[in-house]
Amino acid sequence: MRPSLVKSFYLVVLAISLATVAAGAAQDGATAQATAPPVVPAPTTPGNLVEGAKINPFTYEPKSTVSDGGNPAETDLHKALEAMGPVAIEWYQHVQTLSNPFFEGRVPGSRGNDLAAEYIQFYMTNIGLEPAFQEANASGASQPSWRQRFDLQGGAPVVNACSATVAHQKLDRGKTYQVIGSSGTGTVNAPLVFAGYAIETGQKDYTSFGPHDDFKGKVVMFLRYEPLDEDGRSLWSDRRFSGASAMRGKLDSLADRNPAAVILVNPPECKDGAKELEQTESSVFGPSYDFPIVQLSPEAADALLRKADEQGRGLMDFRRIADKGEVKCVAMKQDVPVEISVSIEEKGIPAQNVGGVLRGRGKLADEWLIIGAHYDHVGMGYFGADPQNRGKLHPGADDNASGTGAMLCTARGLHDYYASKGAPADMRSIVFLSFTAEEMGLDGSREFVQHPTMPADKIAAMINLDMVGRLRGNELAMSGTGTAEKFADIVRPAIERSGLTVKADPGGRGPSDHASFYAAGIPVLFLFTGNHDDYHKPTDKGFTVNPYGASKIVHLTEELAKTLATTPEKPKFTSTDGKGGADRGYAKVRLGIAPAMAKGDRPGLGVDSVSEGTSAADAGVQKGDVIMMWNDKPMEDAAGLMERLREHAPGDVVKLTILRDGKEIKVDVTLKASKK
Known about the structure:
By secondary structure, this protein is α+β, with helices and mostly antiparallel strands. Helix content is 26%, strand content 22%. β10 (219-223), α5 and β11 form a beta-alpha-beta unit.
């Protein structure tokens, strides 16, 4: 995952997630209580009331037994976990805690994410680490800090002030009008123009515009969706609406004609459309425009039209005109003005990485090893998750409470090792990092790489732990073994001591935080126990993980860290571009690009690199291209790319519109299956 190039849809809907997370969690809990099967299975033997017993609460201690012929439900968890060892117990505690609904899915900007950061800081302090960062105190002096604070770009729009007066009648925001999230800032007092459905080109040469329409100095009213029949259903689609109803296309068409302001209205008696006003936070239809955009209720729009139209026609009359497409834009009376004033801005979302330092010693103390794991998840599933699960709490046990827990357990083990008498005289320092906003596009790790606490040339390597909680068959994947010279040979002894089967992938890129370090020329290793059906779903819960398997991952990580922290020569970085990288199975198909970093408000999804042998490479997609359209849908960010990929199967052909060297070209891409 990488960042968006425009206002990120998934950061905008984050505001919706933050507003509904508590209610959603409560509803999720209530639903579970109403629909869950009985907590205790039906007994196989009758119960027994033993009368006349005298109980001393200080000495009463029944013997532990396993009944029902070894029924797994009768497992003594205490003994089972105790047999797994102290690392498994500590790791399991971390995962159970961080995946609890109390942490709200740990989405950045939420109270749950802040609590998770506090939890991680508590354990870093408890382990004996030092704060990894510096920040200014109230007097401006620098002081140690566990947090690296920054703002995520592309937060929800915030309306600072607004007003709307139509036909000399002042409207109430939230009741008769609302500011649309894509609105620009401005104040307008101008006459009205009705522009139908604001569709540039529809079926059978339908258009809402004349060849010379120019709305300079005018407020333009348009209808949502597309032409309807007398029953209020689309004339162009058997299922709801066609692509012509897309809001961004309409707003772009209006913007091309220079309006002073725009008014959106839901068409009356539309069977399949929205009936209520939009919310500002959830009505971002692409990048913001340079003119005010508001939505009027059908009642307010009807009253305005009846006063402004020369013939006194109402909203339903104009809907029927637009349905037929017989009349294009209609200018209204000059003496019935519309006054709209909007002041709106995009607020950043406060975010924080959490980090602690284990000091090295001797000749290698000024060099560094980084061990990292992201602690955020997708909250209520409004981005990065299956659309059918939006609004449901996503606990994120394996992704990535598992990696966070493994990082903390590794920190404790290495702290004890560094303090032991048998530790080498020369050891690199280690910084343990918990990244936020990985799910939004590797924002946390990129923030650290751009603002590190040590020179990049002093970093020997980075180990990334992401989804390490489902070890199966004693096998895991490790990416990055080709990112340093003879890297596989350097780490081989640690792997052999682990007893694990490690599938080595040389690639340094991939959908997790190690990719940020690889892009900065730092050798990386990415540990991953594999994808599963609960990935980015509400079912990724704490009880589904494998504590004993995780203890093996922690042991392997410690051994890798000891090797990389004590090897005299710092590993020499090598590029693996074109050799692929770990694929976590986001969809059945893969495009084969690494999305580029954001570049202001430029629309489209940039291409940072193209992997050899992939769908994109075969179609001639190049580094530096900007993907503007996927078939007929605008492409804005990495989250949008994943939604498109989920819609396809291997062998499907899609048409990409690409901006290259200032020119748009179209390429056909035959989609190949994702790696298994």
